[in-house]
Amino acid sequence: MKPWLDCRNGTIRLTLHVQPGAKKTEAAGEHGDCLKIRLAAPPVDGKANAALLAWLAQRFSVAKRDVQLLSGDKSRRKVVLLQCEASEEDALQRLDLQ
């Protein structure tokens, strides 16, 4: 059971610590009670948020409209909701954490 991952009722809720301006976009392991995501996009004009949502949609094979930023628009700590039927094990695999 990961504190940053909640899979139930056809949704996945992720609590993230986002580091924009990295060399490449990737999941970088746990950061306290969050999953750390390194983003290649700069933290300018919402580009990092858009890149994060697009990356998560691609990783979980869902449409961009199925990925929603619930909180943290201007913060490094973000909560994201994906409309996706997946187990915790499947979610970890899709994030390359297994």
UniProtKB/TrEMBL annotation:
InterPro entries on file: DUF167, YggU-like_sf
Pfam families the UniProt entry points to: DUF167
Coiled coil region boundaries: none
GO cellular component: cytoplasm
Family that this chain belongs to: Belongs to the UPF0235 family.
Name the record gives this protein: UPF0235 protein D1345_01630
